[in-house]
Amino acid sequence: MLPQTLLSILLTTVLSTTTIAMSLAPRDTIHASDMDRYNAVMSTVKGSQFLHLYLKDNQVKLDIYEDPSNALVSQNSFAPSENAPKYFEQEEKREEALQNEEAEAVNKDNSAANKDTGNGQAA
Questions:
Q1: Cα separation of 73 and 52, whole Å?
Q2: C-alpha angle 39/58/53, rounded to 5°?
Q3: Per-domain residue ranges of the chain
Q4: What angle do CA 98, 100, 103 make, to 5 degrees?
Q5: Which of 38, 54, 116, 123 is most exposed, with the fewest beta carbons within 10 Å of its own?
């Protein structure tokens, strides 16, 4: 039988690997029939630009913006793959988790600040 700590490490590694393997990338949202066009569009993206990828009207939309002006450079639509809804759901969950982490950090900072100033202590 494996020691408890070794078993814990193995389980953590397996679960982490499974989570990583299940993560979808933005290109997973594009149907195979549109992949060449997607690759062509992506090859035009410059380092000073940022992307907004979203699902709308049963199409994967890719807007390219210029940084720092936020000027819209181009808009593209692609046929969605069967994984498109899963990707956007994954990203929504990831965003929620990040927001929760940020809120917890702010609450922790506020709590520490209140303790430092005596505002968090009972009278």
A1: 11
A2: 45
A3: 25-115
A4: 110
A5: 123
Angle at 97 between CA 92 and CA 101, to 5 degrees: 150
Which residues lie below 8 Å from residue 32, measured CB to CB, with a gap of 6+?
A: 81
Q: Which two tokens stand for residue 19?
A: 């989570």
Residue 49 has which token pair?
């630009």
Nearest to 56, CA basis, from 98, 85, 24:
85
pLDDT per residue over 47-92, tens digit each?
A: 999 999 999 999 999 999 999 999 999 999 999 999 999 999 999 9
| Pairwise CA distance, residues 86 & 106, whole Å | 30
Res. 105: pLDDT tops 50: yes
In angstroms, rounded to a whole number, what is the distance separating the alpha carbons of residues 64 and 46? Answer: 10
Confirm if 50 and 65 have CB atoms less than 8 A apart: yes
pLDDT level of residue 108 (50, 70, 90 thresholds): confident
* Per-residue pLDDT at 119: 64
Dump the DSSP string for 98-113: HHHHHHHHHHHHHHHH
